[in-house]
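Researcher: Here's the sequence for the chain we discussed earlier.
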Amino acid sequence: MELTRRTLMAAGGIGALGYVGMSQPLGNALEAKAASELSSRDMPVPFTTAFQPLQRQLPLETYVEKGVRTELYSVTARRGQARILNNYLTPVIGYNGKVPGQYISVERGTKVRLRVRNGLDLTGGHAGHESQGFALSTHLHGHASLPEYDGYADDRTMPGYVKEYVYENDQPARSIWYHDHARHITGENVYSGLATQYHIRDKVELALLPQGEFDVPLTLSDIMFYSNGVARYDDKDHSGLWGDIVLVNAKPWPVMQVKRRVYRFRLLNGSVSRSYQPYLSNGAPVTMVATDGGLMPTSRQVTRWRHAPAERYEFLIDFSKYAPGTEIRLMNASNEKNVDFDHQQDHGVQGRRRPGRQDRPDVEPGQHPADAHLERRHVAGAVAEREAPLPGAEEVGRHQPLEHQRDDLGRRHRQRLQEGARRPRP
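Model: Thanks. This is the structure I predict for it:
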């Protein structure tokens, strides 16, 4: 049967969000049937794996340092194994040997001391590691770090050594992430598992957005395997790496069961090269509330957006409008320049449903309805803003400019720009 772009998009997606989901990357002309060397028996079947929530890392110690609340964290980059495929344990290199790694979440103004130990043992690993002496460097992506803590590529920590990074966390609430940044092997190290999320909270977002179990971090990545379940790294001589299996929190196309509430999703694209164009399978809009720079001045309803590597978007989905047992998939239309594959067609993903599953029993409506506009209000000194028109709002990925509607906001914006010129860039 001839496969057209339309039928590929209908069959494709990023996974399955609880009865909500994330499915396979389809949308461009097909490069090949698969990039992995796995047998059909070992290839993961979409929407059969349970969603794996990211776990929060707790501080080892909390104390006051020169009048500032300070939290101490410690991680060791070392080898481990992850159950990504049903029939194999995949060797990984992760923080504390775990993939996905635990995320850090702190209140704005809390100082973090993060000790990163290089626990690699100079054997095994990928070729890039050996060529660079198994060096590591940790970068908090999106944080205005001081130069000595920025994790630039040649700030190397060798095996057996530890570096303590200090983060002031004086930016407004946002989703950022930390990952290895060692010279020439950043892509290989991130692909191997040295990456996880980091959240800065403040009183504004605490008052406006869902928290706790309804605040869900999602990390996207793509991967390919050798026949023995070992991850295969092939960036085509630095021209790009395109895996044929999409992971959400290190699980292939998982299924997340949700309550009938409003959920906040923090979506990080942790892929080395692949960009995404997410949309919901039922065509409903999501409510976009934050980007790399934190909360948007006003929320926007969008039906799809372009999501490049390393970018973060936060959006709301109101599941209270759907009957128990409803399936919604978070799909992917893909983008130009991606290399896509069609091996998932063999598994009959299109139109597939799984009988016998139920929603979780909570049927309370959400406190943050997704069809309501989110506006910053006077919360602990926050400045209120009126809604500003956003041309082309259906694609937030175009980064259209937002106009501040108050003189004091314009003044503060100019002041931040002046301060930013004196601060190191993240």
